[in-house]
Amino acid sequence: MKQPLLEINNLYVYFKMPNYRSIAISGLSLKAYPGEILTIVGASGSGKSVLAHSILGLLPRNAVCSGEIIYDGNSVDNNLLSELRGKEIAYIPQNVSSLNPLVKVGKQVRNFSKDFELKKKQQKIFKDYSLDEAVEKLYPFQLSGGMARRVLISMAVMKDPNLIIADEPTPGLDIVSAKKTMNYFKDLASKNKAVIIITHDIELAINYSDKIAIFYAGQILELTKAEYFKKGPQYLRHPYTRALYRALPSNDFEPIEGSQPIIDKIDKGCVFRGQCKHRQDICDTSVILQKINDEMVKCNVDFGS
Q1: Contact (Cβ atoms closer than 8 angstroms) between residue 8 and residue 196
Q2: Mean pLDDT estimate for the chain
């Protein structure tokens, strides 16, 4: 039986503010497997990027984090994380401004090393990602959006990581460039890497992912197979997931009424109950975690298997 490369158990993250606390992630559990693309989708502010920063230990000082993160069977602490980050675990940030504007991109990808073998490796990676040899001598401002994304991917894979986390890797790209970028991640997964992609673009994600995790108000409401989004809403189990399906431009383009709640205390009820057409009294105080094989849904309604 395949073992997860990354396992997250009961993760909580909140931010301390002067007069209150803001809960960004609440009781989250998740597994990422080698050879698969797991895509996390959800609205802005749902906690997607906070999850990535939690895995990488990049949360700000006012963040309080609890729960368990396991990498390749080992519980992750600060010491282990410092060894994994940038080597075993690579992060591709959503903002291309993370590139140093004063340094040529080839030198950045090589981490300023002058080693001949590293330069050959960087040039090969650039070639794999359709970056001309001359690109290594360019500064970030001279790159197109698609080129900058490919440089960030190149930087991430230089040390041959086993887990790649990409935060919004396709915004601002035309559809051809976006599909090429997603194909690069698919190629990484085919090499038995575990890939986690964070995105708003559900329609793009379902064509390149193995599994989709639906985020809402700091929780995963459903973990399902990406192919179910192609088969139809009857294969999706949570009311929010079905609402997302109907909101896609290729479907009914039906807006989701209401807004995502701001969470400042632990809520044992369903966080979507304020917008849900299937709301029951029990939804105010508890929610059932239903598991079906390697899928799950947090909902008191049983829509069948």
Answers
A1: no
A2: 92
Q: How many secondary structure helices (H) and strands (E) does the chain include?
A: 9, 12
Give the total residue count for the chain. Answer: 305
Q: Which of 172, 153, 167, 221 is nearest to 56 (CA)?
A: 167
Four-residue CA torsion sign, 54, 6, 286, 256:
positive
Give residue 202's identity as a one-letter amino acid code: I
**21: its two tokens:** 């606390």
Per-residue model confidence as pLDDT tens digits over 227-284 = 999 999 999 999 999 999 999 988 888 888 888 888 888 889 999 999 999 999 999 9
Question: Burial, 173: exposed, middle or buried (Cβ in 10 Å; 0-12, 13-18, 19+)?
Answer: buried
Nearest to 33 by CA among 253, 209, 183: 209
Over residues 173-206, the pLDDT tens digits come to 889 989 999 999 999 999 999 999 999 889 999 9
User: What is the pTM for the complete model shown?
Assistant: 0.93
Calpha distance 215→47 (Å, rounded): 7
Measured over the CA atoms of residue 278, residue 281, residue 282 and residue 283, the dihedral's sign is positive
- Residue 2: is its pLDDT beyond 90? no
Phi, psi of 101 (to 5 degrees): -70, -15
Evaluate whether 156 touches 109 at the Cβ level (below 8 Å).
Answer: no
Residue with structure tokens 């929010």? 240
Compute the chain's Rg from CA coordinates: 20
C-alpha span between 270 and 287 (Å, rounded): 6
DSSP string of 245-257, one letter each residue: HHHSTTTT-PPPP
- How would residue 293 be classed by pLDDT, with cut points 50, 70 and 90? confident
Task: State the DSSP code for 128.
Answer: H
